[in-house]
Write a structure and sequence with these properties.
Layout: H1 2-12, E1 35-39, E2 42-46, E3 50-52, E4 54-58, E5 64-65, E6 71-74, E7 80-82, E8 87-90, E9 94-102, E10 105-114, H2 128-131, E11 144-145, E12 156-165, H3 171-180, E13 184-189, E14 198-202, H4 208-219, E15 224-231, E16 234-235, E17 239-240, H5 264-268, H6 271-274, H7 278-284, E18 288-294, H8 318-332, E19 348-354, H9 358-371, E20 380-383, E21 385-386, H10 400-424, E22 429-433, H11 451-457, E23 464-472, E24 478-480, E25 490-493, E26 497-500, E27 510-514, H12 516-533, H13 546-554, H14 567-578, H15 582-588, E28 601-602, E29 607-608, H16 623-637, E30 685-686, E31 695-696, H17 698-705, E32 712-716, E33 725-729, E34 750-754, E35 763-766
Parallel strand pairs: 2-10, 18-19, 18-20, 20-22, 22-23, 23-25
Antiparallel strand pairs: 1-4, 3-8, 4-5, 6-9, 7-8, 9-10, 11-12, 12-14, 12-15, 13-14, 16-21, 17-27, 23-24, 26-27, 28-29, 30-31, 32-33, 34-35
Helix pairs in contact: 8-12, 9-10, 10-11, 13-14
Length: about 775
């Protein structure tokens, strides 16, 4: 307007000059933009790299136009962004189109962002498997959907895959392949020697169909042995019970007869009998690092997590938090602390890892085993996670797509385990759940329930043990749980199992859950206990598993299910496997360290003597051990003729060493040597180990290792009925003439100390 005004005034002149003036020329309008070109029009960018684009506008004659405003846009800001000045920044691997617009005319550049920072590094001719970084995959929830065309409700990734390499693949070849598919490495397990490595890749795909096409490209490469989408894993739970105070009540009795008992599973497995070896482990055993891979682990007053080894990962899903806490409690809820429940293994040191996807657990497992020093490396790993096909409407007996994915992921687990063994020199014993798909469809095979079950059953990885679930029927008979998949190695209690739950509101932090998830930690806890008992017991390998052989050899047959684990029998059998009597000796070595073996009162001073109620562990089985068993036997019988010195609440009257002497002491007493859970002089029970399954009484078990030359005499075997005689340790009574025992054989005395000329210790008759 100003230029136009000046021109007009000039054209009019000054008015009085009388001179004529030529009119001022008005500039022509600017030339229209006829075309725009962008430089460069294509390029590859490294991840997090930048690229400056430039745009040139031209008119119809091809002349360059300057001073024109340009607008820049990105077709995929999640892959690359562009500034108002045309500076591109790579965000994620993939392809993106950058467009510039100048007065209605546009130009574009097609860019590809490569995961250069995440591709393999090293000599291009070197083996690619060994160059894979050891990295835990951290999936993003937005990359997973439940709209797969074949598997419907199953949570499957639209862009994340696991790839198993061929051992011959080189770094240069693999990098070229990754660039071709715009893959970003987000996790991995390096290979070793001839063990193939596993890569977790994120591809620039946005639908299941796009991912399927990209996977086809990968499968066609001779560098790739297998490729499969990442899937979600969930806890194998079929029901939840109340978590009120009543359900948290534990009922002690020597035999499990009803699942109403909060601790029925421990009793069915004979775990309380196993705990009679606790004092030995405290002196001569070791703690066992046990890893739990699950959905989450909030703090709980009855759980101690070894955070000094690895911090606990917490998943926000309430379902995952409940499941992980319950599983961890069955293994290692703090023993005998007056709270809630007791875990199977009082000597477990828990390491917990949370997650929800196969890629996380596979890479996390490898990272934990490969990067942890041997002293803190887990020897037992519990994985109570499955695909839960049945819950999502998938029948593996009919749907090949589900079986195929389980098989491919099982192949990945096999490769990962082989790499761990070659790298760290050993494998832990991995206990996994068989799955609950029979709750929805008949004839469901455990080998398709998870990548780990498939690796164990179909791929033959011996270090992995698959556990089915048992229930207790009326009358105390064990049977297979109706929901449990078939085909596992062992079975354990898994219905209405009481354990820890997250603390929430005013509810009791304990409750019941059912599933093969609940059976698995029973076995994991037992294995950890046995390894605490014998820390040098051979570790499993890819092709052998001495611990599984031990558990199966001592397990009890269960109709319709895999053999049911027997904790006490397994512990005693360790002697036969190891060729010694170490465990049996620990079981019957019960003297309290005093001169008497179970002294309550020093009869010379009449002062109380406490000794060690848990057992002094002198390694010798002699008269002192016999005296303690004898005193326990007499007290258990409640015979009025038997007078035991010491106060009624003296610790020596605490037969089951629970710190509370009372009227129910004959329930899993410390001197129960044959594992039947009680003291009864004539009762026999099958004994494994050096007994070879023969039935024995408590006294006969003690007799096997008795070694005291001062007392190796013929005495009454059945002193309660005075019926027979046998050459067993001589207590404070003697048969005057074998082979029969006269009624006067047992002379009951009351606190009459006497000394034997052949005895090296003074002792007392205490009946």
């Amino acid at each position: 307007m100003l230029a136009l005004l000046v021109g007009t005034l000039a054209a009019c002149g000054g008015g009085d000059s009388g001179e004529s003036t030529a009119p001022m020329m008005v500039p022509p309008p600017p030339a229209a933009v006829a075309s725009v070109t962008m430089t460069p029009d294509s390029a590859d960018l490294a991840l997090a790299g930048t690229l400056q684009l430039s745009a040139v506008a031209r008119d119809a004659q091809g002349a360059t136009l300057t001073g024109r405003s340009a607008t820049w846009t990105s077709s995929e800001p999640t892959i690359a962004t562009v500034s108002t000045a045309g500076l591109v920044t790579a965000v994620a691997a993939g392809r993106v189109q950058i467009t510039v617009s100048v007065e209605g005319q546009t130009a574009s550049a097609l860019l590809r962002v490569r995961g250069v920072a995440d591709t393999l590094r090293g000599d291009a001719a070197a083996a690619a498997a060994a160059a894979i970084p050891l990295r835990v995959a951290r999936p993003r929830a937005e990359d997973y959907r439940t709209d797969h065309p074949e598997l419907g409700k199953v949570t499957i990734s639209i862009n994340t895959v696991m790839v198993l390499l061929e051992p011959a693949a080189t770094i240069g070849q693999l990098n070229a392949l990754l660039r071709n598919v715009d893959a970003q490495v987000v996790g991995g397990v390096p290979g070793a020697a001839q063990a193939a490595g596993v890569l977790v890749l994120r591809l620039p795909t946005r639908t299941h169909a796009e991912l399927a096409a990209a996977m086809t490209t990968l499968r066609q490469s001779p560098l790739i042995r297998a490729v499969v989408e990442d899937l979600e894993l969930e806890g194998a739970v079929v029901s939840a019970e109340s978590s009120d105070a009543e359900s948290a009540a534990w009922r002690w009795g020597t035999v499990a007869t009803t699942m109403a008992d909060g601790n029925w599973g421990l009793k069915a497995m004979r775990v309380p009998q196993l705990w009679n070896l606790d004092d030995f482990i405290r002196r001569d055993g070791a703690t066992t690092v046990t890893a739990v891979f699950d959905g989450g682990f909030p703090a709980h007053p009855d759980l101690r997590v070894a955070s000094d080894i690895t911090p606990s990962d917490v998943v926000t899903s309430e379902k995952g938090r409940r499941h992980g806490t319950h599983v961890a409690g069955t293994i290692a809820a703090t023993y005998d602390n007056g709270l809630g429940v007791d875990g199977v293994n009082p000597f477990a040191r828990l390491v917990v890892k949370g997650g929800a996807y196969v890629s996380t657990f596979l890479t996390g497992f490898a990272e934990l085993l490969m990067s942890t020093p041997s002293a803190g490396r887990p020897r037992v790993v519990n994985i109570s996670l499955n695909y839960n096909w049945g819950e999502k409407g998938v029948n593996t007996a009919l749907q090949d797509s589900a079986r195929t994915r389980a098989q491919r992921q099982g192949l990945m687990v096999e490769a990962m385990m082989a790499s761990v063994q070659l790298t760290s020199g050993s494998l832990p014993l991995v206990i996994v759940s068989a799955g609950n798909d029979r709750n929805f469809f008949p004839a469901q095979d455990a080998r398709f329930a998870s990548p780990f079950t498939n690796a164990a059953i179909e791929r033959g990885v011996k270090a992995i043990v698959v556990v089915e679930a048992l229930q207790l029927t009326e009358g105390g008979t064990l049977s297979e749980a109706a929901f449990s998949n078939d085909g596992g190695h062992l079975s354990a209690p898994g219905v209405q199992i009481m354990s820890t739950l997250p603390v929430a509101g005013g509810a009791q932090p304990y409750g019941r859950l059912s599933g093969t998830s609940m059976a698995t930690p029973h076995v994991a806890g037992l294995v950890g206990y046995l390894l605490a008992l014998d820390p040098s017991f051979p570790a499993p390998t890819m092709t052998s598993n001495p611990m599984l052989d031990l558990l199966r050899a001592t397990a009890r047959p269960v109709a319709g299910a895999s053999p049911g684990v027997d904790a006490f029998a397994a512990a005693i059998e360790m002697d036969r496997v190891r060729g010694n009597d170490r465990v049996l000796r620990a079981l019957v070595d019960v003297d309290d360290g005093t001169i008497d073996g179970n002294m309550r009162v020093d009869l010379r001073t009449m002062q109380p003597v406490l000794g060690d109620a848990a057992g002094a562990r002198d390694g010798r089985i002699d008269m002192r051990d016999f005296r303690r068993w004898r005193d326990h036997q007499l007290q258990a019988e409640g015979n009025d003729d038997a007078v035991l010195d010491g106060s009624s609440n003296h610790p020596k009257r605490d037969l089951n060493v629970d710190g509370r002497p009372n009227r129910t002491e004959n329930v899993f007493p410390r001197t129960d040597f044959n594992g039947d859970g009680r003291l009864a002089f004539l009762d026999e029970s099958p004994m494994t180990g050096i007994f070879g399954g023969a039935r024995r009484t408590d006294l006969q078990v003690l007799q096997r290792l008795f070694d005291d030359p001062d007392y190796s005499r013929t005495i009454c075997r059945n002193w309660s009925t005075r019926a027979t005689c046998s050459s067993i340790p001589w207590p404070a009574w003697r048969c005057p003439g074998p082979p029969t025992c006269a009624p006067h054989c047992v002379v009951r005395k009351r606190r009459r100390p006497f000394a034997s000329s052949t005895s090296r210790w003074p002792h007392r008759a205490r009946w």
